[in-house]
Every structure is written in structure tokens, then in C-alpha cells.
Specification:
Elements lengths: L1 H12 L4 H11 L3 H12 L8 E2 H4 L4 H14 L7 E2 L12 H7 L14 H19 L2 H8 L3 H22 L9
């Protein structure tokens, strides 16, 4: 039992690298900086994943609860392993069970779509956003689908713009001047 708990903690707390965000962004056609902004807003880059029992959080929502039970069977995880926000969002990118069940991706290539696996969570968020951007035409519309809060949407878009600006500033070529 101790090994199982240690394994779950390590799986949930694994840090994603810049290369992981770049890879998923390229794979799904979504800006890696947008994915980073969401990861910061949702879990502080995996540092705060939530401690609420997701089963209890979604107990009054039949669709969410059914999806969570299907995910648990598929991943061979006990329902008690699914911890997340008070609303039931879980994993590195804080995705609701029904959303993960519908859009889930295998980000690390192990053959299992697991919302508690940071790579799968990131891949799912990227895929979801790509689909929603294709349907709605904008990152803002996709973000409103991801988390139906105008305040959240503005916060993520602001972080995204700041990250893009930092990236452009950091990559700007600095030409040395020669003094004679």
C-alpha cells in the first residue's frame, strides 16, 4: 500500500518541462505559451493539484460521476485516488472528468489516457483547446469552454500575452557594438 501511495504522488507531482509544452503545442497546433498560462492558472505548474475527493465533488452530477467511474475502470485506479478541486477538476491541467473522458489523450505514449498523468493531462488540454479553437475560432472562446469564467479567461489571456512578450524579448537578437 505504501508503494502505491508513493507512486501516485510521484505521478501527480512530476514537473513538465518547456520541451513538453513545446511538443504538445506543436502536436496539436496550440501555442505552448497558452498551455503554460493555463497550467499556471490551474495548478501553478503542477504544484497545487487539489486535495478534494473528486468522487464527492461530482457526486451530484450524473454525467461527471459516470465519466469518473469509467476513467477509474480504464486506468485501473481506485476512485479514492482521484483528488482535485472542489468542483471536481483534476490533474496538472485541472480537467473535469466528462471532458477528460471525451477528449482524453495519451501524452506519454504508454497506451493509457490518465488524467492524473501530467503528460496525458497536458496533451488532453492541448487537444481540447485545438478542437474548441477550430469550432469557435478564438483562444478566448476556447478558454471560456475550458473554464466558464470571464475573470479566468482574462487572467489566462493576460499571462499568455506576457509570456509571448517575454519570449519575443528573450529571443531578440542583440548585436554587439564595436568600440574603436
Amino acid at each position: 500500500m505504501v508503494l502505491l501511495l508513493v507512486t501516485v504522488w510521484v505521478t501527480q507531482s512530476a514537473a513538465l518541462s518547456d520541451a513538453d509544452f513545446q511538443t504538445m503545442g506543436r502536436r496539436y497546433g496550440v501555442s505552448p505559451k497558452l498551455l503554460v498560462a493555463i497550467a499556471i492558472a490551474e495548478s501553478q505548474m503542477g504544484k497545487i493539484l487539489g486535495t478534494c475527493d473528486v468522487t464527492q465533488a461530482v457526486a451530484d452530477d450524473d454525467a461527471q460521476l459516470r465519466a469518473l467511474k469509467k476513467i477509474a475502470r480504464y486506468t485501473k485506479r481506485a476512485l479514492a485516488e482521484f483528488k482535485g478541486s472542489y468542483a471536481g477538476a483534476m490533474g496538472y491541467m485541472q480537467i473535469m472528468p466528462a471532458t477528460f473522458y471525451e477528449y482524453g489523450q495519451d501524452g506519454d505514449g504508454d497506451g493509457i489516457k490518465d488524467p492524473l498523468n501530467p503528460y496525458d493531462s497536458l496533451a488532453t488540454a492541448a487537444y481540447y483547446l485545438a478542437r474548441k479553437i477550430a469550432e469557435g475560432g478564438s483562444a478566448q472562446a476556447a478558454l471560456m469552454n475550458y473554464n466558464n469564467s470571464a475573470e479566468y479567461c482574462q487572467k489566462v489571456l493576460k499571462m499568455y500575452a506576457e509570456l509571448e512578450a517575454e519570449s519575443k524579448f528573450a529571443s531578440a537578437e542583440v548585436k554587439p557594438t564595436l568600440k574603436e
